[in-house]
Design a protein that fits this description.
Blueprint lengths: L1 E4 H12 L17 E4 L1 H18 L7 E6 L5 E3 L4 E5 H6 L3 H16 L15 H8 L2 H7 L2 H8 L3 H9 L3 H18 L4 H11 L11 H5 L4 H13 L9 H18 L4 H4 L7 H13 L3 H14 L4 H13 L3 H15 L3 H13 L4 H17 L4 H13 L3 H14 L3 H12 L7 H19 L1
Parallel strand pairs: 3-5
Antiparallel strand pairs: 1-2, 2-3, 4-5
Helix pairs in contact: 1-5, 2-4, 2-9, 2-13, 4-9, 4-10, 6-7, 6-8, 7-8, 9-12, 10-12, 13-15, 15-16, 16-17, 17-18, 18-19, 19-20, 19-21, 20-21, 21-22, 22-23, 22-24, 23-24
C-alpha cells in the first residue's frame, strides 16, 4: 500500500490553476489532510466484486479506475473521467461487501448517465493526486469557472466549493439509483447492500450540514429514495441470493489492511488478542510494520506466508517491509515473486522498479527496472512516480533523451506544462524521426498546445 500526500505532490499544480488569485492558497485546511492511497489488493478485490456489475452496465473494466482517498469522512464520487474515488471512511463503515458494491454500482450509474464532473481538459491527463487536489478548495472553484465557489473559498469555506463541485441533483441521484438497480437485476445479484448503506446515513439528513458526512451533502438522501431502493430490493428474485463466501473474507481483510496502515494504534482495540483469524493477524503485521517494529512485523508476515505461501499480497507486504527496513536486496526477489504470481500488477512493478534503482547503478538493475516500469505504465499511464523512476533509470544508462521524454510525461501529469514542453522539445532534437519515442514527444507537445489553446 502506498500513501501519497496530495498537497505535497501537487501544490505547484494548484498554484498554476490559481493564477491571479493566489491569496486563496492559505484557505485550504481540508486539502492538507487529503491523501491518495494506491493498493493492489484492495483495488483488485473491489474490481473482482464489481465484475458482474461492469458486465451488466456494459462498461469495460479496464476503463474504470478505483482510487482510495484517505479520509475518515464518508464519500464516493466520479471525477477526471471514469475514475471512482472512495474515501476510506466509507469503506470502513461498511459491514459487508454488498454495501461497497451497492455504492460502486450507484457511481457507475452516474458514469453511464453522463453525470460526470465537468473539469478542465488538463484533468483528463493528470495524476489522481492532481484530480483530488483540484476538487478540494480553490481548484474546484477555478476548474468549474464557478465564481460563487471562488468567493466561498476566499471567505475560508473551501468545503462549500468542494460540495458544489461534487454535488448531484436529486434527479441525477434517482437516475443513478435506477441504473444501479438494473445492473443488479441483470447480474442476478441482491441489491440490498445499496439500500442498507443508505439506511445507515438516513439519520444524517436531520443534522446540520456541518455535521453531515460528505456523501450526504453531495448525494441527497431522501426517505423516498430509500423506500424506492428497499422496495426494488425486496421484490427482486435475487434478494436472498448470498454473495460468495470468499468475498466476505476479502472484505474482512480489506478493513484489516486499512486499519493497520491508517490507524495502527487502534489495531489492539479492534482485534482482540484471542482473535487468531487471518484478518486480525494481517492487521497486527501491518501495524507492527507501520510502528517500525522490524523483527515482529517480519515474523508475523512470515507466519501468514506459511499459511498462504502463494498469496501475492502477503509477498508484496513483505517486500515493502524489507525495502523500507533497508534490506533492499532481500526485498527484490520477494517483489519479483509477487509480480510473477499476479502478472498484471502495475503498482507492485513500480515498487520493484524503485527497489532495483535503490539497489545500485548496475546496468542489469537499470534495465530490469525499465522493463517493469514500462510494463506498469501500460496499465498506470497516470503514474507520475513511474515516469520519474524510468527517467532516472534512463539517465543512469546515459540515455538522456529518453529520460527527458519521461520527465516531460511526469510534468504533464503534474500540470507543469512549461517544463514538459521544454523537455519534450529538447528530446525531439536528437530522437530518430518516426520512432516510438519521437511520436511520444510529439504527442506531449500536441496535448500541451491543445490545453493552452483551450485555457
Amino acid at each position: 500500500m502506498y500513501i501519497m500526500d496530495t498537497m505535497k505532490n501537487n501544490l505547484r499544480y494548484l498554484i498554476i490553476l490559481a493564477v491571479g488569485i493566489s491569496l486563496f492558497i492559505g484557505t485550504l485546511p481540508r486539502a492538507e489532510a487529503q491523501t491518495i492511497i494506491r493498493d493492489t489488493e484492495i483495488e483488485n478485490t473491489m474490481n473482482e466484486w464489481a465484475a458482474p456489475i461492469y458486465k451488466a452496465a456494459e462498461i469495460a473494466p479496464d476503463n474504470v479506475h478505483i482510487i482510495l482517498v484517505q479520509s475518515d469522512d464518508i464519500n464516493a464520487f466520479v471525477a477526471g473521467g471514469a475514475n471512482i474515488f472512495f474515501y476510506t471512511g466509507l469503506l470502513t463503515k461498511t459491514d459487508n461487501p454488498d454495501e461497497i458494491i451497492g455504492v460502486l454500482a450507484h457511481e457507475l450509474g452516474h458514469i453511464s448517465g453522463g453525470h460526470l464532473i465537468a473539469t478542465r481538459d488538463a484533468l483528463e491527463r493528470a495524476t489522481y493526486e492532481s484530480i483530488i487536489g483540484t476538487i478540494i478548495g480553490i481548484g474546484a472553484a477555478i476548474a468549474t469557472g464557478d465564481s460563487g465557489a471562488a468567493i466561498a473559498v476566499g471567505g475560508g469555506a473551501s468545503g462549500v466549493a468542494q460540495r458544489r463541485f461534487l454535488a448531484h441533483s436529486r434527479v441525477n441521484e434517482s437516475s443513478a439509483d435506477q441504473a444501479a438497480l438494473s445492473y443488479f437485476e441483470t447480474a442476478e445479484l441482491s441489491s440490498d447492500g445499496l439500500a442498507s448503506f443508505m439506511r445507515k446515513l438516513e439519520s444524517e439528513e436531520l443534522l446540520p450540514a456541518s455535521q453531515q458526512s460528505e456523501y450526504v451533502r453531495t448525494h441527497p438522501i431522501t426517505r423516498n429514495r430509500i423506500e424506492a431502493l428497499e422496495s426494488r430490493a425486496q421484490s427482486s428474485p435475487f434478494k436472498d441470493r448470498p454473495y460468495p463466501p470468499e468475498w466476505i473474507e476479502q472484505h474482512a481483510r480489506l478493513k484489516a489492511k486499512l486499519t493497520g496502515f491508517i490507524n495502527p494504534g487502534r489495531v489492539p482495540w479492534v482485534y482482540d488478542d484471542r482473535d487468531d483469524s487471518i484478518p486480525a493477524r494481517y492487521a497486527r503485521a501491518i501495524a507492527a510494520y507501520r510502528e517500525n517494529r522490524v523483527n515482529e512485523s517480519l515474523h508475523q508476515i512470515d507466519e501468514l506466508l506459511a499459511l498462504e505461501p502463494k498469496n501475492a499480497y502477503f509477498l508484496e507486504l513483505k517486500g515493502q517491509m524489507l525495502v523500507d527496513f533497508g534490506r533492499i536486496a532481500e526485498g527484490i526477489p520477494v517483489y519479483r515473486r509477487s509480480v510473477e504470481i499476479l502478472g498484471k500488477a502495475p503498482l507492485i512493478r513500480i515498487a520493484l522498479g524503485h527497489a532495483l534503482l535503490e539497489n545500485g547503478d548496475s546496468s542489469a538493475n537499470m534495465k530490469e527496472a525499465i522493463t517493469h516500469l514500462d510494463r506498469a505504465l501500460q496499465d498506470e499511464p497516470r503514474s507520475a512516480r513511474a515516469h520519474r523512476l524510468i527517467a532516472t533509470a534512463y539517465g543512469r544508462l546515459g540515455q538522456e533523451d529518453l529520460a527527458k521524454i519521461h520527465l516531460a510525461e511526469e510534468a504533464v501529469l503534474q500540470g507543469n506544462l512549461p517544463y514538459a514542453k521544454h523537455q519534450a522539445e529538447a528530446a525531439l532534437k536528437n530522437i530518430k524521426k518516426g520512432s516510438r519515442e519521437w511520436l511520444q514527444a510529439r504527442d506531449i507537445l500536441a496535448h500541451i498546445e491543445n490545453v493552452e489553446n483551450k485555457g
